[in-house]
Amino acid sequence: MASIEVKPLQDGLSFGARVDGVTWETLKDEAVRKQLQQLFEDRGMIVFENVEPSAKMQVEISNVFGPLKDHPVKMVERLDNDSYPGVITIRAQSDSAICEIEGKTLVTWQPWHFDHTYNNELNRAGVLRAEVIAPEGGLTAFADGIQIYNDMDPTLRDKAENIELLYTLDMHYERQFFGLPKTFKEIQPKNDDILEYAKKLPRSIHPAVWTRETGEKVLHMTPYGCRGIVGNETPEGNALCAEIWENVEATIEPYFHQWKPTDMVIWDNWRMLHEACGCDPKYDRVVHRTTIKGDYGFGRWETEPQAQTETVDAMA
């Protein structure tokens, strides 16, 4: 019988696990696959260590957790859809966003967020593998929405439970009205093609708090692409977003992943927040990502709430 080794992600964290021993052979074992699926449900994210560093293995691991979903934005770079359907490439390019935080220049920095906020359908999970690793920086951070909800100021938690938030694909730093570091400076904006396309899309709506089938409540909001509170797009509403988020950042207990070529990471997009910490623009950094299909069922379009089963087919 095949077996894998499971260890805590990091001492003191209420989420995550490390798994060693995942090979082509162990993945054939249905008991191992079920063990990994349950571990994912229980812990919210898994760091697979010492796995074969290939897109083929990334697809195989991803398929343990559900069918793959193509990225909803068609202009996003694909690795090779014929050989590796569903694998996208994320790289620092000349037109990538660049900013400065605490005096450090960073390319492709992204604040705490969950993926595809701009869509009505919220994918189940993401799987990342680092193809080219920056010699310094380039970390990816993860945090648990269950932990955040449980440890928040109860007054602000109650306020968050009663709001829904509007999101857009326009994630230009300049549009972000809360959640930027105090020392933040924008040096180069995001790709104009995506920003222009974002103007054509309806805004999506997601709750700031939702409840899992297992009963836990999840704080699930992000300043990234947020345009305010449904029914309260006012300075007062924006101030409430900022107040809640300030408490989130004071409460959060993050894990920062330092990448190795033989690592892969899966996280629950319905539960976890993650942050791309960025790296110096002089370094190359390339990651491959797969997306696991699914939907938690609480998102919708602002203009077409009845079309909840439809998803964006961007740039088709």
UniProtKB/TrEMBL annotation:
- Source organism's superkingdom? Bacteria
* All copies of domain TauD/TfdA-like, residue ranges: 5-291
On whether ATP-binding is a keyword of this UniProt record, the answer is no
Record's keyword annotation contains Metal-binding: yes
Gene3D superfamilies of this UniProt entry?
Clavaminate synthase-like
What does the record give under GO molecular function? dioxygenase activity
User: InterPro entries in the record, alphabetically?
Assistant: TauD-like_sf, TauD/TfdA-like, TfdA_dioxygenase
Enzyme class name: oxidoreductase
What protein family does this chain belong to?
Belongs to the TfdA dioxygenase family.
Protein name from the UniProt record? TauD/TfdA family dioxygenase
